[in-house]
Amino acid sequence: MTSSSLLINFSDLDACDYGIKFEYSPSPAEPGKQVKIKLYGASKEELDKTRLYYGSQDLGKGSFIKTESILSYRESIYFNEENLKLTKYPFNEIKSATASSELIIIEDDIITSFAPRGESINLHKEKDACVNIKEIVTGSIEVSYDAIKKYKTYNWTAPNVVVDTEFPFYVVREDHDPQEESILVSSETYDPVDVKLIIKDIANDRLISEADITITKENDIEFEPIIGKSDINGEFIANNLIPNQEYNLLVTKEGYIDSNLDYLNNDTFKVPVIEETEDE
User: Fold this and answer.
1) Residue 243 sits in a domain of what CATH number?
2) Domain of 174?
3) Rounded CA separation 232/146 (Å)
4) 273 phi and psi angles, rounded to 5 deg
5) Of 149, 166, 189, which residue sits at a domain end?
6) pLDDT digits 0-9 by tens, 11-61
7) What dihedral angle (degrees, nearest 10) is formed by the CA atoms of 111, 9, 82, 93?
8) What is the mean pLDDT of residues 217-242?
9) Residue 214 clears pLDDT 70, i.e. is over it
10) Are 120 and 126 a contacting pair, CB within 8 Å?
11) Of 39, 37, 38, which is closest to residue 20 (Cα–Cα)?
């Protein structure tokens, strides 16, 4: 496998603004039950200057959890002609990077194919530096890296409600605009179900086998991403999903546009609620 080199600018860590990552469990929350909220940040100093508000109620500084364990992550970084979506945390060490779709560079109005899908990429960076891509690029890369996670927790009791309701929270840092988040409190709970996904070519309705499938869930601490491939019939079984909840879906395969880069409304799906009927 060949390797291409991606040029990167660097900026001071203090100048980076990755925001604070907000997660909670269970998701959705249950009426009258306690919800654990986690705020992740790049440093203890940053977290110490962060407060959480439920509406106008100040929930304080929270309980800081010190962890020095280095965790390994894999994630995709997406580019388009105007901006770059980065991880919310600096990389301590990028171990590998691979083009997960074709990378295109647009420089001085000249369009150049930089790297085909599957090609390894050399990322020039410095330890703990923010990552800024020098060129304007379209496409995406998948990176593996190590990071030290720091976070603090809050406990909040979900109100007793009879309908599905989203409750507003605000993450407030010094010298930053408030970051609005929300927690969904569900009036009903459901047992997990298995969901069959069928992957088809929209142009000819042909079933697509060996497509890479990734299912994630927004703002849920406990949800483990589901990763796999469609079978010879274009089918993939996702186990233990919760009805009436929304999941993120990414489908990729060589020769096709990644599902999150096309114009179709196929980036999320909601698990339907199947009403049980009694046999007469």
Assistant:
1) 2.60.40
2) 1-189
3) 35
4) -95, 120
5) 189
6) 333 344 556 788 898 888 888 889 999 888 767 788 888 899 998 899 988
7) 100
8) 89
9) yes
10) no
11) 39
